[in-house]
Design a protein that fits this description.
The protein is α/β, with parallel strands linked by helices. The chain is built from 14 helices and 12 strands. The longest helix is centred in the last third of the chain and has 35 residues. It is globular, with a radius of gyration of 25 Å. The structure holds pyridoxal-5'-phosphate.
Length: about 475
């Protein structure tokens, strides 16, 4: 082998190389934070020209320091900075320092969560974190869960278990073995018209198709209309369809609105349906002492999607799929002679692959373990409460103006609004709001969201940064108003 310093080994030279590469990288990252803007990089054409001129795989390699110099020049300045208080476009958060430290540990040792012999202590930590999360969300010892790649996969996992539970228990059909039963075209699941698109994607992946998702209208508070849900289920049952699952969105992507979980639970019980909670956004609210009551219904749901890379401020990816009754995980278990032998499991070795759609899987649980222990209930409550308080404040400032239209009072930390045109202006409201967002992105270092609500283009602040302040929100509003 002509090359040295491939890995961190017990060899002194390797250790030195490890420390020096990490140090120079961390230094370059810190030095790149020389302004507070959310984006001060190039536009799309310039960026393409800068990046695509390179030879990705040259004949002869170069020193790490050379490459790091290029990273400093081309990449670091062109990254968006979700840690900036000028960044509020999406459900995309900054990463807490201790969770970045956790990433170094988990990447260095590269544990894989599929089987015990690839991740001994990591397996135990994941089990421990999941056990505590079950408690936090109101499940008893029958609850269980698994880390996933994100909310979309957690949703698919919950909905798949719902479908399989329905086939196994209501139709007496072993779907794992035989595939979809002949009546599968009659299966129906219910989600609000503003639910996440992973509902339809999951329906497709489960072999049911988009049409299996009945989209239920929302009320003025952007919550699923319970009268409409009940009417749709009744009509479907009469027409011979088979309702198997409803999904409560606990924090809609645009508005942060929370569907009424208690009423949905009652309806699901009445019709023998599974209740899934897509809490990819709203799962963080449980840690706010002041606001946790808003998501109190989660413990009654059969499955819950929790995303740690949104309100919980952890590096992507970090998400959990929780299940109220762990026997349902059976749907994802398949034994392989090379990996998760049944005989080992009888002897106490836990193979987490049994609960997962993934095989090789990251040790993301470490980030939660470190951060929860480090900040504690008090620290976490402060972080989450601050974001929700900020949204309430910003909404109040907007609501008292006659030249701004607010859409809905925030329940979590998103505020959607639109500016109305200055009297006498020839520009229509949609064009103006779109123009202002672009201008903020490319000329002011401010990244905000844009969406469509009831046919109108709106602007959106998704406030996931606890460093955000009321004074800064006032400044941002003044800036936006000045761009009309
Ligand atoms: C973000 C989001 C998802 C998807 O989660 P990913 O982690 O991006 O896959 C699902 N549902 C809702 C409501 C979301 O906001």
């Amino acid at each position: 082998m002509s090359q040295s310093n491939l890995f961190l080994t017990s060899d002194t030279a390797d250790k030195q190389a490890f420390v020096s590469m990490m140090e120079s990288t961390v230094r370059a990252i810190a030095d790149s934070m020389d302004h507070g803007q959310a984006y001060a990089g190039m536009g799309p054409y310039e960026l393409r020209a800068a990046v695509h001129s390179d030879e990705l795989l040259p004949q002869k390699g170069r020193a790490f320091d050379d490459i790091l110099a290029e990273v400093k020049e081309k990449i670091l300045p062109n990254l968006v900075r979700p840690m900036s208080t000028n960044y509020m476009a999406h459900l995309h958060s900054a990463a807490l320092l201790e969770t970045i430290a956790a990433e170094i540990i988990l990447s260095t040792f590269n544990q894989s969560m599929d089987s015990w012999d690839q991740a001994p202590v990591a397996t135990e930590i994941e089990v421990e974190v999941i056990r505590n999360l079950c408690k936090l969300y109101g499940y008893d010892e029958k609850g269980d869960g698994v880390f996933t790649s994100g909310g979309s996969q957690s949703n698919l996992s919950g909905l798949l278990l719902a479908r399989d539970w329905f086939c196994n228990t209501k139709l007496n059909w072993d779907i794992k073995k035989f595939g979809l039963p002949t009546e599968f075209r009659k299966f129906r699941m219910y989600a609000s018209e503003i639910s996440h698109f992973s509902m339809e994607k999951s329906a497709h992946l489960m072999g049911l198709g988009y049409d299996a998702v009945a989209k239920i209208p929302v009320d003025n508070a952007m919550k699923m209309d319970m009268g409409a849900l009940r009417a749709q289920i009744e009509a479907d049952v009469k027409a011979g369809f088979m309702p198997f699952c409803a999904c409560a969105t606990v924090g809609t992507t645009d508005f942060g609105s929370i569907d009424p979980m208690d009423e949905m639970r009652a309806i699901c019980d009445e019709y023998g349906m599974w209740l899934h909670a897509d809490a990819a956004y709203g799962s963080g609210v449980v840690l706010s002492e002041k606001y946790a009551h808003r998501v109190a219904g989660l413990g009654a749901c059969d499955s819950i999607t929790v995303d740690f890379h949104k309100m919980f401020l952890m590096p992507i990816s970090c998400s959990v799929s929780l299940i109220k009754d762990k026997t349902n995980f059976e749907a994802l278990t398949l034994h392989a002679d090379y990996l998760n032998r049944e005989e080992d499991e009888e002897e106490g070795y836990i193979n987490l692959v049994n609960k997962s759609m993934q095989t090789t899987r990251r040790f993301d649980a470490l980030k939660v373990w470190i951060s929860f222990r480090m900040r504690g209930k008090e620290g976490w409550s402060e972080l989450i409460t601050k974001c929700i308080d900020n949204a309430a404040y910003f909404y109040e400032q907007l609501a008292k103006r006659s030249d701004v239209e607010v859409i809905v009072k925030p329940e979590i930390s998103s505020v959607v609004f639109r500016l109305l045109p200055v009297p006498g202006s020839s520009e229509d409201a949609d064009t103006m709001n779109k123009r202002i967002r672009r201008k903020l992105l490319h000329h002011k270092g401010v990244v905000i969201g844009q969406t469509v609500c009831r046919g109108n283009t709106c602007l959106k602040f998704t406030l996931l940064n606890p460093l955000q302040s009321e004074a800064k929100l006032d400044e941002l509003l003044a800036l936006i108003l000045s761009l009309r």
